[in-house]
Amino acid sequence: GAFVYPALRFVGATQSRAEGSTEERSVLFASHPAIIGLWHGQHLLAPLVRPKDLPSVALLSRNADAELNARVVERFGASTVRGSGGREGETRADKGGARALIALRRALGTGRSVVMIADISKGAPRQAGLGIVTLAKISGRPILPSAAVTSRRHVVASSWDRTTIPLPFGRMAVVIGDPIHVPMDADAAILEAKRKEVTDAIEWANRRAIELAETKR
Fold first, then answer.
1. Model pTM score
2. Mind listing the pLDDT tens digit for each residue in 21-32?
């Protein structure tokens, strides 16, 4: 954490902003508190995108790999909640998911946005789990499909989620899509439809961010 934090700050300081990027400050505050959904492997830039004065909490897994992420996120001034994002066929209690959802709903209720990796650790990459739509249902707060990408980056091809490491001196693109609302009376069929909608929306934001970052002006 002591190494990654300054490294990310250096990467952020050397980026120019890609033309066409979302003005994240106005969008995030307009829907605040919201659930900011993004993909595994695309999450390293999230602390740089979050406005410093936006109260927020990040959901992180309870595995050993997430410990480093937690230390970095906390150095950037956000608090963390540990738990599962809701793997299909897995009871949320198996990995503290129920407790995490309660804590995140409480955070939203007290005016903090939630930054949440939507796909499930070691599950199907870039397929949203039920956790993010369940949180939207029980909290009444919108999901903001989001992505941040740099033009100079290294993709760890051997990682299950193709982890992307941002490199300095590039162009950073930020894309935040339209809010997605989940009815508080949503049944299983509606939750599944919303899960697919979130999957498509985050992947659209990701592809759009890549396009913007790689377009030279």
1. 0.89
2. 999 999 999 999
